[in-house]
Amino acid sequence: NAGVTQTPKFQVLKTGQSMTLQCAQDMNHEYMSWYRQDPGMGLRLIHYSVGAGITDQGEVPNGYNVSRSTTEDFPLRLLSAAPSQTSVYFCARGLQDGNAYEQYFGPGTRLTVT
Amino acid sequence: AQSVTQLGSHVSVSEGALVLLRCNYSSSVPPYLFWYVQYPNQGLQLLLKYTTGATLVKGINGFEAEFKKSETSFHLTKPSAHMSDAAEYFCAVNDAGGFKTIFGAGTRLFVKA
Known about the structure:
Chain A is mostly beta strands. Chain A has strands at residues 4-7, 10-13, 19-25, 31-37, 43-51, 54-57, 64-66, 76-78, 87-97, 100-105, 109-113. The model of chain A has no long low-confidence stretch (mean pLDDT 95).
């Protein structure tokens, strides 16, 4: 699992419900990120963090919140689920190499919003 | 702004044939370039990366890629395809600040027996 665990593996929500996708790493990397994967669109960055207490927005942050209280954990919260948030969500830890991060991905959470 | 274009959403080759997956990038800064592979129902796995130095980069499973600045390309190749290479492949580039990675749309590789 590349040192990244994600729970749950599958989730079905109704429109308007909220939930938290869990992500944890065991490599003590400062950098972590959340992506969503949709057919034909590759991966799009939702939020990222460069250390405990430090988070920032990616390409598609609307409708999602994150926090980073510890190095190990980086949960993603859906505030009020919408069908457009049906997707596969991947969390990753990043190892810095110069001006970029090589990333190690978890197995993903498949979310369906009805 | 940085961007990545992968030419061909699907590529089909015969087992033993050359694999060529195309990637072109746009970057306002010296690029860091990556290829990731995703097997069915799994997360992405790093295949190889270019940061600085040698422009021909070798990765896992016999794959390699060549950085060509003049062509803004970073194509992925493997001399002889194996059935186990069937997967989706993503090219990616760092953004100018280094904290965001921009992914291409992906190319699904099919390998025929």
